[in-house]
Amino acid sequence: MQPQVKQALDCWYGAWEEQQETAQDAFAAAFPALTPAERCQCFGPTLHWVTPGEGRGKVCLDDHGRATIEFEKVPKAAVGAAMTECWGVDWFDEGPGGFAEAEPGQYHYEDEQTYAEYEFDVNGDGTVTFGISYVKVDDIVTMLDALERALATQRPD
Fold first, then answer.
1. Contact 67, 140 (CB under 8 A)
2. Among residues 75, 69, 83, which one has the least CA distance to residue 52?
3. Using an 8 Å Cβ cutoff, are 152 and 51 in contact?
4. What does pTM read for this prediction?
5. Half-sphere exposure of 104 (CA within 13 A, CB side)
């Protein structure tokens, strides 16, 4: 490889690593319970969290710079508030009350233009397990921030 090409590629790798680190910083700033974890099948930086009564999950960044969030057993009221703030209600056919009032079941949406996937399982126990995959970092940060604020309102003082 020509020296100038190798140098340019090395600069690109350095910038990509910095971008991954700053994405992780943004995820953790929006949702402070996130901590570093082993890389998952995304092959990029991965953060996870477990908080009794609030759920568990992970956020990762794939090698194309797309973010994925997979959360389990999150209180339905918090998910409902976050989803309403981010996307409004009834985007996923969950009804006019949003996910906070959704009946148990599966709700799914695929964006054919961006290949993003949204899947929500509303459980009968008052929790939601959901995944939002292959979206921009800023979309995941927005959702994490809204979810953190919604969960904070349910925490005892």
1. yes
2. 75
3. no
4. 0.90
5. 6
